[in-house]
Design brief:
alpha/beta; Nucleotidyltransferase, domain 5; 2 domains; 7-stranded mixed β-sheet; 6-stranded mixed β-sheet; 19 strands; glycerol kinase activity; ATP binding; FGGY_N; Rhamnulokinase
């Protein structure tokens, strides 16, 4: 039997972070979660921030737990969400706590960007969808700020954590590709765009590919965590969706994926970017993937809608688990009101059930009442928006998806998985749940020479002890086609109201 090798994945999500130990043996990876912690943003008078000092402390606690088990760990990798960043001064000190991408300071920044560079030219250069959360608009919102003026280095969140662990500054490619500041074709920073946006070009450092060895833990970190022997840190596919797509257990290229969690990333994998007017009009993005691939995808708002509903109901004294909401949604009648999950009114934190009811009233639908009805409305709307996104991806790329792979925490919502099969009229293969951590670990195994290619990685994923569940389309195709047309009508009505300046 092949010797067992251990790797450690730090996987940071918008709701929680986790440190996962992976034991690789016999061409398969077994996972053990050694530490999990909440990731709670902090609202200050100047806006919404991430508590990155808490995050890095909890990361070190996770490393310590793994090290204290006596496991010999061959390497460590960090992944997280994209677009957000920390700024370092000339001494390498953090200037201020990073802003949260849901902070409203980016309102109006797209218009500022288009005044300096036409929308079409931005997309032609970067291939990235237009969203107010993008790093480009966050930086434009800081124009004239003494914080930006004092900055010497910009590091995205996974790179920032990696810097604090190793002392090495690097910008990993898959994370950098989410910023709308990279040249989609060359993979480097879009220097002409940076100049036209009047952004300080010197803060953007070297972009490195996934699998790059950063270096060992700093001696002080190694001593603090008990991780002896110079634990190496690998710059993995550090955007969490990139790691999740690595762990899609696909057997050929004819698949679509949905990385389902706080966000739902719906797309296909391509050998090179697909930059065309159709992609810009449908607001698809071309982001970097592992092994020279491109993630051609659409950001759909995802389970954020239910997460924020839960928070609102909890403040009202009504606590619901995700499992309870799924059961209530299952019991609620189908074919009710629908919403466009990507409407701008649903992006910020706040009273999500109230916003959903208001959206339905504005689009001339009877609003949902009880939590189960709200949850059913959200889940059916997500499944139908997945269909819209999948059909647009196929139209633009000419690639037909024979199966939809759903990975990530949303796999646990079996109702959503079944609704996705029903709405898309495609078979759905759901799993693995911990796809991001698994992809992180697999890239480390590749970097250390245990796996030779993306195809080998995916074969190892299929061999690994992960749960996979298959869902076949159920229900009447005519009924789902009718629901899909209703969704398209709702999207058109909302867009018309937005153009007229209506407030949701």
């Amino acid at each position: 039997m092949a010797a067992e090798t251990a790797f450690l994945a730090v996987d940071l999500g918008a709701e929680s972070g986790r440190v996962v130990l992976g034991r690789f043996s016999g061409g398969r990876m077994a996972l053990e979660e050694v530490h999990r912690f909440p990731n709670v943003p902090v609202r200050l008078p100047d806006g919404l921030h991430w508590d990155v000092l808490w995050i890095v402390e909890e990361v070190k606690n996770g490393i310590a737990r793994a090290a204290n088990d006596g496991e010999r760990i061959e390497s460590l990798g960090v992944d997280s969400w994209g677009v957000d960043f920390g700024l370092l001064d000339r001494d390498g000190c953090l200037i201020a706590n990073p802003y949260h991408y849901r902070d409203p300071r980016t309102e109006g920044m797209e218009e500022r960007a288009f005044d300096r560079m036409p929308r079409e030219e931005i997309y032609e250069t970067t291939g990235v969808q237009f969203m107010p959360i993008n790093t480009l608009y966050q930086l434009l919102a800081m124009e004239g700020s003494p914080l930006l003026q004092a900055a010497q280095t910009l590091l995205l969140i996974p790179d920032l954590i990696g810097y604090w662990l190793t002392g090495e500054r690097a910008c990993e490619f898959t994370a950098a590709s989410t910023t709308q500041l990279c040249d989609a074709r060359s993979g480097g920073w879009a220097r002409d765009l940076l100049e036209k946006m009047r952004l300080p070009g010197h803060i953007f450092g070297e972009i490195v590919p996934p699998g790059t060895q950063l270096g060992p833990l700093l001696p002080a970190v190694a001593e603090e965590t008990g991780a002896k022997g110079g634990l190496p840190v690998t710059s993995v596919a550090s955007h969490d969706t990139a790691s999740a797509v690595v762990a899609v257990p696909a057997e050929n290229e004819n698949f679509a994926y949905i990385s389902s969690g706080t966000w739902s990333l719906v797309g296909v994998e391509l050998p090179k970017p697909a930059i065309a007017p159709g992609g810009m009009h449908a607001n698809f993005t071309n982001e970097g993937g592992f092994g020279g691939t491109t993630r051609f995808l659409k950001n759909v708002m995802g389970l954020w809608l239910l997460q924020e509903c839960r928070r609102t109901w909890a403040r009202e004294g009504r606590e619901y688990s995700y499992e309870e909401l799924a059961r209530l949604a299952q019991a609620a009648p189908g074919g009710g009101p629908l919403l466009d999950p990507d409407h701008p009114s649903f992006l910020p934190p706040g009273d999500m059930p109230g916003r959903i009811r208001r959206f339905c009233r504005e689009t001339r639908q009877s609003p949902p009442g009880e939590p189960g009805e709200v949850a059913r409305c959200v889940l059916e709307s997500l499944a139908l928006k997945y269909r819209w996104s999948l059909e647009r991806a196929e139209e633009i790329t000419g690639r037909r998806a024979e199966v939809v792979h759903v990975v990530g925490g949303g796999v646990r919502n079996t109702l959503l998985c079944q609704l996705t099969a029903d709405a898309t009229r495609r078979p759905v293969r759901a799993g693995p749940v911990e796809a991001t951590a698994l992809g992180n670990l697999m890239v480390q195994a590749h970097a250390r020479g245990y796996l030779g290619s993306l195809e080998e990685i995916r074969a190892a994923v299929r061999r690994s002890p992960v749960e996979l569940h298959d869902y076949e389309p159920m229900g009447s195709a005519d009924e789902w086609d009718g629901a899909y047309e209703r969704l398209r009508g709702v999207m058109d009505a909302a867009a018309h109201l937005d153009a007229e300046g209506a407030s949701f």
